[in-house]
Write a structure and sequence with these properties.
single chain; two-stranded parallel ribbon; 11 helices; globular; LPCAT1-like; glycerol-3-phosphate O-acyltransferase activity; membrane; Phospholipid/glycerol acyltransferase domain-containing protein; lipid biosynthesis
């Protein structure tokens, strides 16, 4: 097969995988009247383990595409380009990386030498303490962005502190929070992390009103929902930021938005984030890489280039459900950032349907097919 034919096959398969929901292309029982005893593709998929496995492989490949980091094509493949690549490695690791470490260390020194006294000595003056802590958190996030040589362009009006509003954004990495936080001190809803990130969550970020949860704890959902409602009603609380996808996606797709952020009876302000992968891929695959290694990857790259759009605030329309509202906002973010929508729940990244459930479904369809054949 020639290279041209290979590219055509690849592009064709990519287009097919962008529409992975096989059920959408299978006729339902109520939509058409079929002769008794006629087998449908849906039935064959359910009674044939081989066909089911093949269809499942197509669906699984489409799902995993949302959480894969595409490695850049190598360009240092000849004698002329290889020396330039070696020079770039020396500059990035021996010059830029030490300077960035010094910049970040200097930022932490200023932050901690100011934050600790303010947090300890101004406990009786909550308004003043929160205002100073808000500025300090924005400052340390700016130092983080500087340590990647971050080039971030913001479009639209800067978020403000108002009651009964929530900001929602697509999610690529934990640095999404840092990129947005350097402009406005958001109170974010985030998974509780271990290690030094967890320490920052329970100390510094707690001061700006951030809310943490644990996916493995079912009771956390009720607690978080109650905290969300209380937070959006406050007049002096920091703006609330939610990543409704619930997981990091590779900035090529958007998965389904959870409806919790759209059931708060408040204004929803969409934020679209798009990273330029010319220098580094900002996607964080938490299953393969710790956040520390992710930061080191960013700090040893040339730069992190990003575009952020603050879109027009939205309210739920009459007769519109929370799920429809969430999909409408996802449409806005996907269109603005140039991302493809896929009909997947991001939590499937952490848990899949049980095999027993699939086996029971196959058995029930097999029994129905046998009954048709016996009647015939």
């Amino acid at each position: 097969m020639s290279s041209t034919e290979g590219k055509m096959v690849t592009s064709r398969s990519e287009l097919e995988l962008d529409h992975p929901n096989i059920e959408d292309y299978l006729p339902s029982g109520s939509s058409i009247n079929e002769p008794r005893g006629k087998l449908r593709l849906r039935d064959l998929l359910d009674i044939s383990p081989t066909l089911t496995e093949a269809a499942g492989a197509i669906v699984d490949d489409s799902f995993t595409r949302c959480f894969k980091s595409n490695p850049p094509e190598p360009w240092n493949w000849n004698i002329y380009l290889f020396p330039l690549w070696c020079c770039g490695v020396v500059v990035r690791y021996c010059l830029l990386f030490p300077l960035r470490c010094i910049t970040l260390a200097f930022g932490w020194f200023i932050f901690l030498s100011t934050f600790i006294p303010v947090h300890s000595l101004l406990k009786g003056q909550d308004r003043l303490r929160k205002k100073i802590e808000r500025v300090l958190v924005e400052m340390i996030c700016s130092f983080f962005v500087a340590s990647w040589t971050g080039v971030v362009r913001y479009h639209g009006p800067r978020p403000s502190i108002r009651p009964k509003q929530v900001y929602v954004a697509n999610h690529t990495s934990m640095i999404d929070f840092i990129v947005l936080e350097q402009m406005t001190a958001f109170a974010v809803i985030m998974q509780k992390h271990p290690g030094w990130v967890g320490l920052l969550q329970s100390t510094i970020l707690e001061s700006v009103g951030c809310i943490w949860f644990n996916r493995s704890e079912a009771k956390d959902r009720e607690i978080v929902a109650r905290k969300l409602r209380n937070h959006v009603q406050g007049t002096d609380n920091n703006p609330l930021l939610i990543f409704p996808e619930g997981t990091c996606v590779n900035n090529n797709y958007t998965v389904m938005f959870k409806k919790g952020a759209f059931e708060l009876d408040c204004t929803v302000c969409p934020i679209a984030i798009k990273y330029n992968k010319i220098f580094v891929d900002a996607f964080w695959n938490s299953r393969k890489q710790s956040f520390t290694m992710h930061l080191l990857q960013l700090m040893t790259s040339w730069a992190v280039v990003c575009e952020v759009w603050y879109l027009e605030p939205q309210t739920i329309r009459p007769g519109e459900t929370a799920i429809e509202f969430a999909e409408r906002v996802r449409d806005m973010i996907s269109h603005r950032a140039g991302l493809k929508k896929v009909p997947w729940d991001g939590y499937l990244k952490y848990s899949r349907p049980s095999s027993k459930h699939s086996e029971r479904k196959q058995q029930s369809f097999a029994e129905s097919i046998l009954a048709r054949l016996e009647d015939k």
